[in-house]
Request: fold
Amino acid sequence: MTEEMKIKVGFGDTFRELTVRIPDGDIPPYQPGDPLDLVGTSEIRLDAVAKVTGTAEFTYDRQPKGLIYGKILRSPHANANIRSIDVSQARALEGVRAVLTTPDVFEDSTARYAGAEIAAVAADSEAIADEAVRMIEVDYEVLPFCVTIDDSMAEGAPKVGRGNQENVDRVSPRARRRRRGGEINADAEASMVARMKEREKTVDKLFAKSKGVVEGEFRTQVQTHAPLETHGVVCDWDGKNLLCYGSSQATFGFKRELGSSRGPVGAKDVRVICEYVGGGFGSKFSAGREGVLGAMLAREAGKPVRLMLDRKEEQTSAGNRPDSLQKLKMGVAADGTILAYRVRSWGTPGTGTGGAGAHNDGIYNLGEIDKVEYGVRTNCGGARAHRAPGWPQGVFALEQMMDMGAQSVGLDPIEFRKRNDDHPIRTAQYDIAREKIGWDRPRVRGGAATVCRGVGVASNLWFSAGGRGTQVMVRVHKDGQVEVRNGAQDIGTGTRTVMGMVAAEELGLPLARVRTFIGDTRDPQGPGSGGSTTIGSITPAARLAGYVAKQRLLEVVAARKNWPIDQLGLRRGHVTRSGDPVLSFDAACQLMEEDVIEVLESRKANYAGFSDTNAGVQCAEVEVDTETGEVRVIKVVAVADAGKLINPMLAESQVRGGVSQGVGYALLERRIMDSQEGRMVNPNLEMYKLLGAVDCPEIEVVLFDVYNGKSNTSVMGLGEPPIVATAAAVANAVSDAIGVRITEIPITPRKVLEALGRKGSDTGKKGE
Amino acid sequence: MPRKKLESPAEGVSRRTFLKGAGIAAAAVGVSGVDVAGETPSSQESLIVGPGPVPFQLTINGDTRSIEVPPSTTLLDLLRDKLGMTGSKRVCDRGSCGACTVMFDGKIVDSCSILAIDAVGREITTIEGIGTPENLSALQQAFIECDALQCGFCTPAMVVSCTALLNDNAKPTRDEIRAGISGNLCRCGTYINVFEAVEKTSGQGGRDD
Ligand code: FES
Ligand code: FES
Reply:
């Protein structure tokens, strides 16, 4: 039975009452004014000591006894069919313990990008494995290829896919097919096309009525995840059971994948351990072919195998954020209301077409929207979810359109946004960002100056309240020890720490008194670190488990001491009676008859809360040298909402991290493909540039503490939202500084100089 | 350059345990051209070693260790795979990320780009020699308090670089800190927290919450 109750929701000093249905067995969310000792404080990370001393054991660091080394042979061709593979020489090489091929393992005889897996070996040393890989002979039927969306979309382009796969697929609105991957249902398609035409007309009429109509074409690059720890596994078999140390952001996902009877590994029992992972950013949900090959090599060799990708493999084959080409049009009424918006966009997620979408029609009220989106196949390494998939690229384009729309009706960019935004939290964030960046300060812009400054704004939103499917175990031992357990991973966001904090809060203990366990699938089920939902999924279960454990302990105390239970609580290491400490926590545990109180609680369903989405606004200030074309981001102000803040310091770190990646995306990062050879030109970290310490701007983070009321901890995850707005804010700031818009990232010095050149030759013409 | 002709490594497996072709020349130069024993090549017949394991001694974190590895082994692989010191990370394996940073006589180097045998005669300091969980350095403590770590993969090397920086310059400015760790990449974006940790250690502020 659900319980109906009134809770307070809101932020700052404005709260309102909301009637919610608390699911059976759950406890109500934190409320403003609740006496909390841990939640809301900047506790240091529980794993910080291990990380600063180098004792944290990552997958790469695991060295089970008898370890041997796996290597993958990859296709040098961008598009080929495998006719045959001769592994006999490799197999005969001394020290080689196992050899596998892709056609055998995955029943796939195609190599559709340069870097596709062809075969794998395991050998006593990395050097022998390398040698063996070189001895494998492959007969390829080499086919023509396309590695850029322009090549692939061109008339008469070589076919990337096989069978009836076209190079360009409409992905939204999606064509109806008779079955998955099958023929398009012609009738359904005809009526779909009619509806699309209708929409086009409606939007055209609104454009005709608009005071300002602006259009733009935007491009974003392919960005690789580039986690410092590459993808891979260390696998060890015990009979039919597999122990897999995996660099993972979904321990249970790996377990399912490697244990599935339909998969090539099909292990009877799989245990995945991932205590530490050196970055994931969306690319480590699946064990991938490397994980499958690692597991199978270990089985065939009868020895533990380490198969970790090298940097080149990581950059070519372990995922990326698709690029985009976005053609946008916006119609604005004289009062600044957006009336209509049109989107035509393309992106390439590699050899498939799923996941190409750019979220360029969200955040604001954009009036009537006419959006058609296409996925483009290219012979490139496949996309994987990447920190806020689809959003940074979409928002990069959308937010420039917002600036252009504001200009078309003579409004200040921030005022224009406010006019088209009704988010209950974001509307309170704009003015803070404006003030902190010094939006209205005079700046040297354009003109004759060689160094100009400008400011730009952009927004983000996210949906990270989390959800069901997670369980947390709390154990209170008779000797006073407390364990908090969940089998999911902490990818550096601080999951381990916040899980411990909410449980310790219930038990009235300092954080150091609980032992937290993370990253072992023998512990209760946890979520994949996706959609920034980990904290929102784990903490409510942890809090509930802590609460139930507390009640059970207090029942023991009440019975043994003959104290009325409704007077008892736990706080600051003691049992309290009517608020006064009466017994130490340890002494209370001593009263237990059994050795341990063990509680396993599930994450309950979300309630109706204050807001289903969390909001953010960022402002960037840049300096542009108009002689060299160099852009320097001076400062980013990031106003962020994470629901109820559990640990402000860790939340701030997430925001700084997202902004840092966003600055790199705006200015530096880019996968470069060689159209002649079909290979990635910069599969490394010297030509694929990540933001470094010298270029890292000042980042001022303003955190909103929002009693969101979606779950008992009211928290919203913050891993992804901060990266959404940054590149857009930087691009808008650059155009503010130099008076001409750059519509393609990364904003390299060359693009700046070209834009300035365009501006020079455009003098006298109407601006953008 | 080596005067004795190197045997072709094509005959036997044991030779293949050696790195690729280029590694052979590099190793030979490392031994013959650089002062392993403090002597220059002109004063001595060039010495060819390898490709099989060769014995030598290294001083790591103050301890003298007897090593026997092929001369093609990088210092990083020796530390990680042979000595079990996994605090130094292999990320790019070619000197562009700094995750493998160790100190050579107090100066930072990328251990992935140095042959172990070239470290003979040097004082090598790794993250394991800077502090332990029971005995943290002041800088490590500041890293913890300033949350200068997220996933933690770049963190040990960041600590090494910042330790070297502070040894050289007790009160670095923010720009000097930026320059000091400019060779250390952090994908998670902990740079500002690292600046704050260094400033906290050098008594110049740090975080205030
Ligand atoms: S691993 Fe040595 S510099 Fe990257
Ligand atoms: S903390 Fe993850 S790479 Fe630096």
